[in-house]
Amino acid sequence: SDPDLVARAAAAKAALGTKVFVLGHHYQRDEVIQFADVTGDSFKLAREAAARPDAEYIVFCGVHFMAESADILTSDRQRVILPDLAAGCSMADMAVLSQVETAWDVLTELGVAADTVPVTYMNSSADIKGFVGRHGGVVCTSSNAKRALDWAFEQGRKVLFLPDQHLGRNTAVLEMGFSLDDCVLYDPHKPNGGLTPEQLRDAKMILWRGHCSVHGRFTLDSVNDVRERVPGVNVLVHPECRHEVVTAADLVGSTEYIIKTIEAAPAGSAWAIGTELNLVRRLALAHPDKQIMFLDRAVCYCSTMNRIDLPHLVWALEELVAGRVVNQITVDPDTARHARAALDQMLALPG
Ligand code: 13P
Ligand code: SF4
Questions:
Q1: Of 212, 232, 265, which residue sits at a domain end?
Q2: Where does iminosuccinate bind (predicted)?
């Protein structure tokens, strides 16, 4: 990265001292992650944001839904800044509040809403988290989805899982003993989600038709191909991958889990990793004694995570030094109150 920008970022951070706390998601660019005070998966970053009451400014190097969650979990006095407002998440955009309200109306008319617990993946807008909080549900991340679902099934007989069909299906089928037939796919673009009343009544898991376009690129062929090319390779994937990919993999988990697994792996072992490329490249560089490769032959960055680059970070920090807050992320108080209930429920999950 540009040495002048590196020096400017370092100077601005030093000038701000403990007033600023920089959080960095594991998918961030190297040039940005070097300035993070803490790195983590989305669960760890939510907890870290909540645990920094002294920082006046939280600069969130990640995507919009993470910054919104940080705003909800921090005090009113603290300001959360996303260095580039275009850093969204295409998966989060796949569930819009009006669509979810329509789905809930469908379940209400069928008489099953009272027995349905909404669960949303962290990768969703504050509006969706607010909806879930209003209806007694919980937020989950890729590191606690099973615990969140266990809790949800103690509250009701059915779960509406938003917005990632893959995390929902993979957790229910591979970790909780549900069958594929227990899950149905609700398409928000079709009347009644494209499902019959019987399907909606009988399903245990109603999965929203959302997915991550980055992880969606890994296929069963990617797994078979790498196993053929690299005998003995361990396949380690994120649960946002398709069901057949996760089923064929050796290990599955959040970004934090992926890092810990590689750190604990013996020298000489070979790993094909199915997640975002910035993280895989960093792991390969940090562990030259292990053979670490990307699961697919094609490159696969998350384009919105990559929007946060060093020029944007420098700009946001230097503006703070000048006393100006740019790109602040705020959630309206009513939405925040309900979203907070669903986030607090997640933070209170046992284990
Ligand atoms: P983690 O919670 O595993 O960091 O995942 C966040 C994400 O956006 C993955 O695509
Ligand atoms: Fe969203 Fe996928 Fe990017 Fe994660 S990797 S932020 S789910 S688009």
A1: 212
A2: 25, 42, 121-123, 142, 238-240, 255
Regarding whether 285 and 265 lie in a shared domain, the answer is: yes
Task: Pick the closest to residue 16 from 330, 313, 329 (CA basis).
Answer: 313
Residue nearest atom 1 in ligand 1 by C-alpha distance: 41
For 301-314, write each residue's pLDDT tens digit.
999 999 999 999 99
238 is known to lie in a ligand binding site = yes
Looking at the structure, do residues 242 and 185 belong to the same domain, yes or no? no
Q: What is the ipTM of this complex?
A: 0.97
Give the pTM: 0.96
Measured between alpha carbons, how far is 65 from 70 in angstroms, rounded to an integer?
9
Cβ of 291 closer than 6 Å to ligand 1, yes or no, is no
Range of the domain at 161: 92-212
Q: Which atom of ligand 2 is nearest to the CA of 123?
A: 7
Q: Tell me the per-residue pLDDT of 21-68, one tens digit each, with 9 for 90 and over.
A: 999 999 999 999 999 999 999 999 999 999 998 899 999 999 999 999
Our mutation pick for probing the ligand 1 site, out of 144, 240, 246, 251, counting the most ligand atoms within 8 A of Cβ, is 240
Question: Is residue 337 included in any domain, yes or no?
Answer: no
DSSP string, 305-344: GGG--HHHHHHHHHHHHTT---SB----HHHHHHHHHHHH
Asked whether residue 345 is assigned to any structural domain, the reply reads no
Domain count within the chain: 3
Looking at the domain assignment, is residue 341 inside a domain? Answer: no
Same-domain check for residues 208 and 118: yes
By alpha-carbon position, which residue is closest to atom 6 of ligand 2? 89
Q: Which amino acid is it at 24? A: G
